[in-house]
Amino acid sequence: MSAVVKICGITGPADGIAAAEAGADALGLMFYDQSPRRVSMTAAAEIAREVPPYIIKVGVFVDASEELVMRAIQECGLNVVQFHGAETPEYCASFPVMTIKAFRVRGQETLAELPEYATDAWLLDAYAADKLGGTGAKFNWELARDAARLGRPIFLAGGLTPENVGDAIRQVRPYAVDVSSGVESAPGRKDAAKVRAFVIAAKQASQAAG
Questions:
Q1: How many Å apart are CA 158 and CA 166, to the nearest integer?
Q2: pLDDT tens digits, residue range 76-89?
Q3: Which of 37, 127, 144, 199 gives 104 a disulfide partner, CB atoms 3.0 to 4.6 angstroms apart?
């Protein structure tokens, strides 16, 4: 099965459409005020309207109120919600769409937290003391292989680029790969050529891996 490709931190319709045309499967919309890739509810709704209907729309939240998440689901037609903060397992289970819990991987001890969350998938990102994601940093993919054995689909993030995503897929065999800064010309501005190269590399590696 081909790995799902998610382009995260989309901030405008043009970048969303370009990612869809490049063959991306999912787009991430960042509802977090402190992110350089933050989108307003109005902007996110516009992006969601403009991209093809088959594109999976993922709302990314950090310790948001349930009211904000529900509003975004309704107004932006989100298919999936992704949580990057200190959300509890109970909170993550309280929404009527598919859910992803993100974990910033420090080491083997991080993997002990995963089974507490019965979300539809787990996202593994690199740990950075001052950022919650989009760091461009990579972590030990051996840990992602271990996580995949715990029984949930794995979204692999953290330091992925068009140059290394093929290796990531061959080594880890994740359900999905998630990129943000690795395909940007500036924070929140995607480079269409890098997005295309990333999607092509990911899909080719998936096919070769079987």
A1: 14
A2: 999 999 999 999 99
A3: 127
Tell me what pLDDT residue 105 has: 87
Q: Which of 8, 15, 25, 178 is catalytic?
A: 8
pLDDT of residue 130: 53
Task: Please return the burial class of 133, using the count of CB atoms within 10 Å of its CB with bins 0-12, 13-18 and 19+.
Answer: buried
Q: Which pLDDT score, from 0 to 100, does residue 28 have? A: 98
Written as six digits, the tokens of 41 are 């509810």
Q: What is the pLDDT of residue 46?
A: 98
Running DSSP on this structure, what letter comes out for residue 3? P
CB 166 within 8 A of CB 204: yes
Q: Is 8 assigned a catalytic role?
A: yes
CATH of domain 4-209: 3.20.20.70
| Other beta carbons within 10 Å of 90 | 7
Compute the Cα dihedral for 10, 36, 198, 185 and give only its sign: positive
**92 and 120 Cβ atoms separated by less than 8 Å:** no
d(C-alpha 28, C-alpha 45), whole Å: 12
Rounded CA gap, 126 and 158, in Å? 5
Catalytic pick among 15, 76, 92, 125: 125
Residue at 155: amino acid letter: F
Q: Which residue has the tokens 């993922």?
A: 58
Cβ neighbours, 10 Å, residue 141: 19
Q: What is the pTM of this model?
A: 0.93
Residue 25: active-site member: no
